[in-house]
Task: structure prediction
Amino acid sequence: MSGLVRHLYVHLPFCAHRCGYCDFVTAVGREEQHGAYVDALLAELELERALLHPRLGTIFLGGGTPTFTALPELERLLAALPAAADEVTVEANPETVTPALAQALRLGGVTRISLGAQSFQPHLLATLERRAGPDAVRRAFHTLRGAAFDNISLDLLFGIPGESPSDLERDLAEALTLEPEHLSLYELEAKPRTRFTLRHGVELERQAEAMESHFETVVETLTGAGYRWYETANFCRTAELGGGRDLRARHNVALWLGRDYLGLGIGAVSTVAGLRWRNRPGLGAYLRTLARGEQPPRELEPLGEGERRWERVLLGLRLDEPLPLAGLESALDGRAVDRLEGLGLTRRSEGALTLTGRGRLLGDAVTAELLA
Result:
């Protein structure tokens, strides 16, 4: 397993506020623990460093809200991370973006920012319990541009309680006005029995019935504006519009292609050489064990060949590139492949399988039928 991994994920869980729909591993506030947490991350990195390839491809700092982490600690973390040749992404919430932060990220080797806009409509942002209004999103975007970031992604949600088709159209128009290199458009998924679903349950059911129409609007609008629909929920400027650059989320593409990756931090997942592990989400236990120089508490999951093939199909068919079928035949239902091809939902060519445009709009439902 030594030296295999070229993709590194670092989880920074701290947030100013926990939004009602969120089910990520987060910790509200805890400013007094930011330094200790960065110490623990760096200790875990040293314990696992032998797994990392000498030359990393990508690093992704996710959360939580990575940019809520105290700036001196975030700078210290960035300075201690290994270099990555292809991409270093940091997730940011608009209200945390200041000129000082943007400059620190730039000097710290960050090459890509994923900015959590979620919506430009004030009533939808209020429903989501987001602290940044539309003006804060625009201001954050322009601040990052002013710091010479030329690879910015905007995250937006659709299917929000109270959202109308015209709200979604306005959100897309507002986003396109900023001319980001990348857009991620996610269906709102609220976990059952959370305060968010208890408050908005009836409206969430109504939105679920409109998701297919919402998704078609997203795809038609963004592809019509010159963005490549390269993954189910992700769009990037084409190479022609992007100055010849590959503006896909390179870290995420590696994961969708089944590459090994190492995750650091509470709740972080790693998949290396057929073994998957997840750090338990407890912050206190994480800090204590790593202060002793020990690995944090983990849940281990050996991955059999069958499961790895199944995941390769499930994730690979989310992409717009054909999925090579060599070695994956046992993960597919051959009769379903034939039937769905006859319905115009899949296409086979030169030993590879892809979903058609219509098949991609149906997405996971088509893939679920294909899997053996």
Remarks:
- The longest strand covers residues 84-92.
- The domain at 305-370 is CATH 1.10.10.920 (Arc Repressor Mutant, subunit A).
- The chain has a mean pLDDT of 93.
- The chain has two domains: 7-255, 305-370.
